[in-house]
Amino acid sequence: MPRKFTGMKPDLSVNIAGIKMKNPVMAASGTFGYGREYSEVLDLESLGALVVKSLTLKETRGHLPPRACETPSGLLNAIGLQNKGVDYFLETDLPFLRKFRLPVIASIAGETIEEYEKVAERLEEARGLSGIELNVSCPNIKKGGLQFGSDRRLLQQVVSRVRKQTRFPLMVKLTPNVTSIGEMAEVAVDSGADALSLINSVNGMSIDIRTRKPKLANITGGLTGPAIRPIAVHMVWQVAKRVKVPIVGMGGISSAEDAVEFFLAGASAVAIGTANFINPRAIVSIVDGLAKFLKEQKLKSIKELMGGLRV
Ligand code: DHB
């Protein structure tokens, strides 16, 4: 009996600056904790990679509540980089994550360049870590954070000094809150970034008109979710024209179709953030949806989509 030819499984694997991933869909920093809670509702090995919530040298308590509020098609938040510190991560979270065949990327943050260097230094001994993401774009802290990502000279300094400090592939996460993200991308790459991830959240503010108070205790916050997707696609496209390193695209992706836009604009992988809060299994359905899309398009590999925009 003739068998219907259904074709091979499409190849979703990618290699981002030496980090081998079985599929191109990562969990975005700050939206997946350290994987523990999500491990109860999905197989962590179904992720392409996990970027953990940013680590600082010492425990950081973060901002007072309210820390988040909803906006049209978006989420505004100001957490203030709450985390238990890099040593706790090394002792507790990383050993848990090591049990899975899953590339783990440590996002790092600091108030000074020295703090970034020290966090990177502490991570040198980490077993089972695949890479570092430099968070130079947190909008919610007074010192450091966004300042590093929006000043050419500071960006050059922090990237080159962490580059010297670490043996791991170094990914730099760019902020959209600049005049030219393409320029900042070039600075990061010239200073040693092996990959870029973009975009971090967009500066925003929301006011309760009856109490006349800001909806966040921090007054301002970072906007994420579908509201920012066209901004992110545009920026990935701008950056892809200027640099040769792999780009991890993110910003409001909640479906495979959304993700495809980023690949066509020039991303080599994508990260899912806010969508995880709506559906904790969002990444699983996006990975499945990408395989279906490739089949439908009669493509053998996700790589065939990358930079495929027709203009
Ligand atoms: C926080 C950090 C970020 O990088 C971001 O995009 C949003 C919020 C924070 O911890 O406040």
Layout of strands and helices, then pairs:
Elements: E1 14-16, E2 19-21, E3 25-27, E4 49-51, E5 68-71, E6 74-77, H1 86-97, E7 104-108, H2 113-123, E8 131-135, H3 146-150, H4 152-165, E9 170-173, H5 181-190, E10 195-198, E11 202-205, E12 207-208, E13 213-214, E14 220-224, H6 229-242, E15 247-250, H7 256-265, E16 269-272, H8 275-278, H9 282-296
Parallel strand pairs: 3-4, 3-16, 4-7, 7-8, 8-9, 9-10, 10-15, 15-16
Antiparallel strand pairs: 1-2, 5-6, 6-14, 11-14, 12-13
Helix pairs in contact: 2-4, 4-5, 5-6, 6-7, 7-9
This protein binds 3,4-dihydroxybenzoic acid.
3,4-dihydroxybenzoic acid is lined by residues 30, 77-81, 135, 137-140, 200-201, 222.
Overview of the structural elements:
- The chain has nine helices and 16 strands.
- It is of the alpha/beta class and 311 residues long.
- It has an eight-stranded parallel β-barrel, surrounded by six helices.
- The radius of gyration is 19 Å and the shape is globular.
- The mean pLDDT is 96.
- 3,4-dihydroxybenzoic acid binds at residues 30, 77-81, 135, 137-140, 200-201, 222.
Beta-strand portion reads 15-25%
Helix-strand sequence: EEEEEEHEHEHHEHEEEEEHEHEHH
Kindly report how far apart the N and C termini lie: 45 Å
- Total of DSSP H or I helical runs spanning 4+ residues: 9
Q: For the largest beta sheet, what order do the strands appear in spatially?
A: 3-4-7-8-9-10-15-16
Q: Based on the structure given, which CATH architecture is correct?
A: Alpha-Beta Barrel
Inertia-based shape: globular
Number of self-contained structural domains: 1
Quick check: average pLDDT?
A: 96
